[in-house]
Amino acid sequence: MRAIQQVAFGGPEVLELVDVPVPEPADGQVLVRVSRAGLNFADTHQREDEYVQRQSLPLIPGSEVAGVRVDTGERVVALVGRGGYAEYALAPADRTFPIPEGLDDGTALALLLQGLTAWHLYRTCARIRAGESVLVVSGAGGVGSLAVQLAKPFGAGRVIATASSPEKRELCLSLGADAAIDAAPEGLRERLLEANEGREVDVVLEMAGGALFDIALRAMADMGRMVVYGISSREQNEVRTGRLLKRSQSIIGFWLFHYLDRREHLEEPLAELFALADVGEISAVVGETYGLSEARRAQEDLMSRKTRGKLLLDPSR
């Protein structure tokens, strides 16, 4: 089968299109014929072995796929952990879920990883309360675009999104944000306060790190909660505990893969997300589909902020 494999860590140039044997499922695994593989910013960290979990070589990247379960012929989405950039992938049976009729592969993939992440950011981590204001960093991204849409159904009051271009800010507004602002650091705190009608924000969903993290923290209200679920800038931050005590603020880290061992952390939220999509409450923003042979370019575009929404790989190309 065709697959993207790397035998060294480094830049996009380490991603090679190769032919490898179709994997054989072990107990508790299923084989999926992949129709679409999802791309995530985490893939770029894994490529350099700078992700939360250490990687081993050789590596076929890709943590999620949509396709057909070979043993049953059922359309499914699956969290595979690794091995998704390929024509076939092995998936744990308990992390494989049927795709509802009428739902396309791209939407199903977006709701699987990005949707589950957004769901847990609000429900498990921030525990948002009715009427609270929310700042969604990178509101045009895969997680951000769903977090913007889920905010009001989950009880939020005013919703503010950051985005890097006028087009992306327009997208955030079309998805339900009350305000969308430039994420450039200069003057960002002032723009945040103005966007929230002069008040500090209650909940911050943050995945950038660096200067944006520090500014968003300074714009957060007493008893506010910041949930950190990424470091796309690759700049880590330090926080003085006295500041948190003085303002009763919380900073919470979230990594979806810590929640994989209990199916109820996945199955019930995913069912809710599928139901919201079915009635039109949320709509996944599906971006470009790249051929498997274009995996390098896909990751380069993702890192350079040229993309929006959920990015996909088509193993047939």
How many domains make up the 3D coordinates? 2
CATH superfamily of the largest domain: Medium-chain alcohol dehydrogenases, catalytic domain
User: Strand percentage, roughly?
Assistant: 25-35%
| Helix-and-strand structural type | alpha/beta
How far is the N terminus from the C terminus?
12 Å
Order of H and E elements: EEEHEEEEHEHEHEHEHEHEHEHE
So, CATH architecture of the largest domain?
A: Alpha-Beta Complex
Number of strands: 15
CATH topology of the largest domain: Quinone Oxidoreductase, Chain A, domain 1
Radius of gyration: 19 Å
Low-confidence stretches: none
Q: Kindly state the mean pLDDT as a whole number?
A: 95
Approximate shape = globular
Annotation field: number of helices: 9
What is the CATH domain class of the largest domain? Alpha Beta
Overall helicity: 25-40%
